[in-house]
Specification:
The structure holds two protein chains of two kinds.
Chain A (H helix, E strand, L loop, with lengths): L1 E5 L2 E3 L21 E3 L1 H17 L2 E8 L4 H10 L3 E6 L6 H15 L3 E5 L10 H9 L2 E12 L2 E8 L2 E8 L2 E5 L11 H9 L2 E5 L31 H10 L5
Parallel strand pairs in A: 1-4, 1-6, 4-5, 5-11, 6-10, 7-10
Antiparallel strand pairs in A: 2-3, 7-8, 8-9
Helix pairs in contact in A: 2-5, 3-4
Chain B lengths: L17 H27 L8 H7 L17 H14 L1 H21 L2 H13 L4 E4 L15 E5 L2 E12 L6 E8 L2 E8 L5 E2 L14 E12 L10 H36 L1 E2 L2 E2 L4 H29 L5 H25 L11 H13 L4 H13 L7
Parallel strand pairs in B: 1-4, 2-4
Antiparallel strand pairs in B: 2-3, 3-7, 4-5, 6-7, 8-9
The chains are: A alpha/beta, B alpha+beta.
Bound molecules: flavin-adenine dinucleotide (FAD).
């Protein structure tokens, strides 16, 4: 079985984000990039599935040469092969999904893992769109995954509870935190990754239907106010929360 | 999930290879998520975090530079150094564990051992399935280990070992001790296995430093060491000192991790703590302190990197290593003290890592050759006059 995992290269969650001079993209100066945190769960699940059932794993990323860093990390964690779909232009989620679906089809992968969302634009749809384009089953926001022959059993998080789902291959699974504990790349893995070639291909081109017209930072936080330091301040606090902040 | 503590004023990053950066970042992630959140508790309770050993092994952090055929990563010395730096950014005790296992146990077995010894021990030490320690220092012989009294005597089928070692990191928990003892007046290395009759390794308690690390005595009373446990290619004190060079190299890098932790804490604190009308970072005296720290960190980083590149070309002399160990340990301790001042009273709390690093660094400055001994080593090298009897 061929297992694919789609990984995106996103700004480090610890970095401070500034808006670029065009007002609709982020300023790249001084930004460090990392593997999208949810994709680490996807990579781990792909590796675990391969360790259990055999097969071959491939990581796919859409973007520029910079994405190679993320692909190298996937290889260092133990993924067998890596494909970079090269494109440096802005793409909406559907356009991303089309390029990924095209490559997944070319790879003949039956099982595909995604992170549940990419923490840069947070659209949370690429996995589902890709499944639709491929005609695969799809389970999103998965916290537990098991495979038995063709049958897939998943647990997914829903508001205030859990949902248990059965489906079958071919399928797209989008990973939520809790699915597993991603391994650290090993030093041997890093050495092995160094010897592997990242296959580069032009990404399938398609039209965008969504356009970003502006980005804005949230309003800056107002300075806090200390009303008191013991219980006697509670009535005043309740009054302010009710009348001024209007939150209770 | 990265939160890389990149303190790099001179863009030294640009001098690193992709693999070197990956090693640093991977170990950094590990330390941020698995070490920093728990280490104060272990330090406080005087316990070593044993549960981390298999993870360190899995990541390949023991014997980083040794050949793949023994289960090691076979990476270069810069990658090894960066890994030590990140571990020590967590805690010197953790780095000490890795240093002992790699430089003082795996390195001598690899360098002075025969093929059976290497095949048996190295893969198990690489995964952390087996733990090692290194016994050189004795109660009466610290800076001059050549005077050691521990000795072996040839008997039928092996040797009889007598004597005692002190201050031995990992002693109590080790499956194998690399013990240095005189045989007919010449120092040799012996592998002493846990549980051998007549061998005890009681833990030393009451440390104010390296509290998250096990330190022990080793006592040998007529311990029979089979012939095959002699490290056949070790001869003279020089063999033991070759191991120390490996470990000192790791320390020179390691303490930069402590420096980074202290500087980072002090800088953030100084920017947010307000006294009088402004943040204390806005006062010139505080700025002078912070500038001192970042300058010393940058110098230490450059010293290490060049040392590592020389070592990879087999051009690093032991005196080069002495210089980096001597300088970096001293500056790390100075930085920890200045950082503590910037935090005022908060600096003494275990809510911040500074005082723990400071206490740890007192040991790190002393072990593997004291500051003074490294001064004399370099002093002799540049003047030609040995200021101590060899
Ligand atoms: C936590 C910890 C872990 C350790 N782990 C190990 C280990 O795993 N294995 C091991 O073998 N050892 C280990 N050591 C021992 C360490 O290497 C020794 O403590 C060190 O070599 C110094 O020896 P000493 O403490 O006996 O000091 P001494 O040699 O007695 O020195 C005392 C002071 O005198 C100074 N001095 C000595 N000679 C001279 C001179 N000629 N000129 C000027 N000044 C001089 C020293 O610099 C020092 O300041 C460890 C020590 C500590 C604290």
């Amino acid at each position: 079985m061929k297992i694919a995992v789609c990984v995106s290269h996103v700004p480090d969650t610890a970095s401070k984000i500034y808006i670029g001079s065009d007002g609709k993209s982020i300023d790249q100066t001084g930004l460090t990039y990392v593997v999208n945190p949810y994709d680490e769960f996807a990579i781990e699940e792909a590796l675990k599935t391969k360790e259990k059932f055999g097969g071959e794993t491939v990581a796919i990323s859409l973007g520029t040469d910079a994405n190679k860093e993320t692909l190298r990390k996937a290889l260092a964690m133990g993924i067998d092969n890596a494909v970079l779909l090269k494109d440096d232009k802005y793409r909406d989620s559907l356009s991303v999904a089309k390029a990924l679906a095209d490559e997944i089809k070319a790879q003949g992968a039956e099982l595909v893992f995604f992170g549940k969302q990419s923490v840069d634009f947070d659209n949370s749809v690429v996995g589902q769109l890709t499944a639709e384009l491929l005609g695969y089953n799809c389970v999103s926001v998965v916290v537990s995954f098991s495979l038995d022959g063709n049958k897939i059993t998943c647990e997914r998080e829903i508001e205030g509870g859990k949902e248990f789902i059965e489906t079958s291959l071919p399928a797209v699974i989008t990973a939520q935190k809790g699915l597993n504990e991603p391994r650290y790349a090993s030093l041997k893995g890093i050495m092995a990754a160094k010897k592997k070639v990242i296959i580069e291909k032009p990404a399938l081109q398609s039209e965008n239907f969504v356009e970003v017209i502006a980005m804005k930072r949230p309003p800056t936080k107002q300075a806090g106010r200390i009303i008191g330091t013991d219980v006697s301040a509670v009535p005043e606090l309740v009054k302010i929360l009710h009348e001024e902040a209007k939150v209770i | 999930m990265t939160l890389i503590n990149k303190i790099d004023y001179y863009n030294i990053e640009s001098l690193l290879s992709e693999e070197e950066k990956m090693v640093r970042d991977t170990v950094s992630d590990f330390v941020n998520s698995e070490v920093i959140p728990i280490i104060e508790k272990y330090y406080h309770d005087e316990k070593f975090p044993f549960h981390l050993i298999p993870k360190l092994g899995e990541m390949g952090l023991f014997g980083i530079t040794l050949p793949q055929k023994y289960g090691c990563a076979e990476m270069n010395n810069v990658a090894y150094g960066l890994a030590m730096q990140e571990l020590e950014r967590g805690d010197s005790g953790l780095r000490s564990f890795a240093s002992v296992q790699s430089a003082l146990v795996m390195y001598p077995i690899y360098t002075f051992g025969n093929e059976e010894q290497k095949n048996y021990w190295l893969p198990k030490l690489a995964t952390g399935e087996k733990i090692g320690c290194f016994g050189l220092t004795e109660p009466d012989y610290g800076s001059n280990p050549g005077g050691m009294v521990t000795h072996a005597e040839k008997v039928d089928g092996g040797y009889l070992l007598n004597g005692a070692k002190m201050w031995i990191t990992n002693g109590t928990i080790a499956d194998v001790a690399v013990v240095w003892a005189k045989l007919d007046g010449v120092v040799h290395g012996f592998l002493v296995e846990k549980g051998t009759k007549g061998f005890e390794a009681p833990e030393m308690k009451g440390k104010h430093s390296l509290k998250a690390s096990v330190t022990s005595e080793l006592v040998f009373q007529d311990v029979f060491i089979p012939e095959e446990n002699l490290l056949p290619n070790s001869r003279g004190l020089k063999s033991a000192l070759m191991c120390l060079s490996q470990a000192r190299y790791g320390i020179a890098w390691g303490v930069v991790g402590s420096m980074m932790a202290c500087y980072d804490t002090a800088l953030e604190y100084a920017k947010s703590r307000k006294q009088f009308s402004k943040p204390i970072a806005a006062y010139q005296i505080t700025q002078e302190k912070l500038v001192y720290m970042i300058t010393e960190i940058t110098k230490a980083q450059l010293l290490n990197l060049q040392l590592g590149r020389l070592k990879d070309k087999n051009q690093a002399k032991f005196t080069h290593i002495s210089m980096a160990k001597r300088n970096n340990c001293e500056k790390a301790l100075d930085i920890a003290r200045v950082a503590r001042e910037i935090l005022g009273a908060n600096g003494i709390l275990n809510e911040y890592p500074i005082m723990r690093h400071m206490n740890n660094l007192e040991s790190v400055k002393t072990y593997e050759g004291t500051h003074e001994m490294h001064t004399l080593i370099i002093g002799e090298d540049i003047t030609g006059f040995p200021a101590y009897d060899n």
